[in-house]
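Quick illustration, no need to memorize.
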Amino acid sequence: MNFIFTHLKKTSGTSLLNALDLSSFNLMRTRKTWKLKFKTLGKQPFILYGHKPYGVHKKIFLKAQYFTVLAPPLERNISDYYFSKQSKSINYEHPDWRYTQLYDIVEFMERGHIRDNYLVRQISGVRRKKLDKSDLELAKYNLKHKYAAFGLKSQFENNCKLISNLLEVSYEIPEKRYKKTFKEELPHKTLERLRKFQELDEEFYKFAEELYQNQNLF
């Protein structure tokens, strides 16, 4: 069986993949999916992974099961901003780094450097500039019926168990490391202003939390 991992930014998706023993799979980033049309995969199953939204399977003309990990919308957006703000070194500069130096987090969101309702956009696969309730319902439908499994960022160990069962591989939980939560340092008014960018995401995430425990792979 082949799989596609919809890797949503700042959801501990990389940590999940690193915890799994994926040696039996051919791993390929979704930005290189065009190569699959010309590549002989042989008998080894593949996992496509990356930040592409739902719908990658339509480009490769091969059957594959989806899985993903979700995070609370507000915390995810804040984490994304500060990750960009801190991602500059001698050898690397995040594409949004200079914008985080110019704008605070609210201005950064208002200018579209982090897309509003990111979870709904990625899971629905809709690319319109303005989303509505129909896109939210499509995201809910996809998560329930098109994804073989999904995790929640706060449930890392359970996610490892869940996805390892899906892929039929082993896993090893890494040593826990404390990570700063920037949400705790932001004023209440700022948090309220940020919430307007993810109203659909908030409803979607509540739906996901209710659905999470009902997955039959635990």
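The chain has ten helices and five strands.
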